[in-house]
Amino acid sequence: MARLMVAVRIRPLTQRERANDHVTAIVKAHGDQAVSVWDPNDDALEDVLRRERQREKLFWFDGVFDETASQTHVFDHTVRHLIDSVLHGFNATVLAYGATGAGKTYTMLGNETSPGIMVLTLADLFSKITTDNEAGAGNYDVVLSYMEIYNENIRDLLSGKADILELREDAVRGVVVAGITIAPVHSPEEVMTLLRKGNKNRSQEATGANEVSSRSHAVLQVYVTYRTTDPQSGQRMQRFAKLSMIDLAGSERAAETNNRGMRMIEGANINRSLLALGNCINALVDPAKKNKYVNYRDSKLTRLLKASFEPSPTRRDRCVG
Ligand SMILES: Nc1ncnc2c1ncn2[C@@H]1O[C@H](COP(=O)(O)OP(=O)(O)OP(=O)(O)O)[C@@H](O)[C@H]1O
């Protein structure tokens, strides 16, 4: 059974936005679970029929973070609780979704002074693994891959090569990317170095809506393998989990961003894969559907995430000899 948690983060206005009078929406946090959205241009309406209409629309979420929320606060109240599940063999996926310029890359990756969810998660994972190892309870291996999906093509961000990689089915690990760099990691510092290296290879361009807009989905996949020996039978066992953390490309309306040519084709591919992702999530969480058909094949992103969205067949400890 897949569990879904949806949280919203509101970022501070940029200088450019503060200087610009034309605001299309005002988003405000109400406590830690509700957000109101309001179009200030509605105030100028002379229409008597609409004057009494409730201007603010209220939306509810599992978590809401206002402009003052720090990276660690967001991490503590969204992703931190997933780490124990991953160490117990459950797959988990964290997605940052939103309009271009909304703060997805800042939230997922952050910067040197304010590291984002990817780095904070790995730091916490390593800290728990160290505690378990010291208590004699664990023998964990952590490896990761970092890729981008750009115009429906998968590229390895760690190798820096422009080769397009294919998806393959693997009996134990589910869908895997053939030929991708799998890097062993032992500390959050190593992770930061790899992510920084990978991001230099990411497809970013200036668009009408963001000066440094990510034009691809960046997918960090962390594979955690736990090995142990059954004290009674002497059998060697292992369990395996995959944690995917994804900085999605910005959703956008072509008319609003004034994108043309290549930027517009990228935008169409981005929106198509975001639609496929939305369809899969809706099909998975809809309680009314008994025999669910989830169409993962509509995009590379959803094919890649199939194993993470479905109950993990690898969750049980497997006997390896
Ligand atoms: N919570 C925040 N606090 C401070 N600055 C932020 C915050 N969120 C975003 N920013 C800043 O806002 C700008 C846009 O953010 P970012 O590039 O992360 O957006 P994005 O959603 O990834 O956009 P795109 O989809 O176009 O790549 C950046 O300069 C970023 O540093």
TrEMBL record:
UniProtKB keywords: ATP-binding, Coiled coil, Microtubule, Motor protein, Nucleotide-binding
SUPFAM superfamilies hit by this protein: P-loop containing nucleoside triphosphate hydrolases
Q: Which parts of the sequence bind ATP?
A: G98, A99, T100, G101, A102, G103, K104, T105
Q: What Pfam families does its record include?
A: Kinesin (PF00225)
Q: The Kinesin motor domain covers which part of the protein?
A: 3-321
- The answer, when asked if Phosphoprotein is one of the entry's keywords, is no
SMART domains for the chain: KISc (SM00129)
Tell me the domain of life.
Eukaryota
Q: Which family does it belong to?
A: Belongs to the TRAFAC class myosin-kinesin ATPase superfamily. Kinesin family.
Q: What is this protein called?
A: Kinesin-like protein
- Primary gene name: KIF19_2
